[in-house]
Amino acid sequence: MTNEGLYDRCYVVYYKEGDQAIYRTPITYNSSVSDVYHTIKYNESLHDIARRYYGSSYLWFLIADVNPIITDIFDLVPGTTILIPNQMIISSNYVQLD
Asked: Which residues contact 75 (CB under 8 A, 6 or more apart)?
């Protein structure tokens, strides 16, 4: 499975200091019976969680978008339970976008 459709509405901004940022339209997602829930552990990042469930740390934003409880991606609260959306459903929704 490829993730190319997940990036089709993104654009990269390059800053003179050498930093870069990706801006994109946040995903919309309806719950599915195949959804998984994850309890955040101490010192765990969204990148770690995305790598575990999706095989790529670059897909952290999928988890952030569907969990409004996450207000700071660098300061996750251990013990918080978050939704891990089904990547197949998200990808198929993106493929249908014009």
From this structure: none
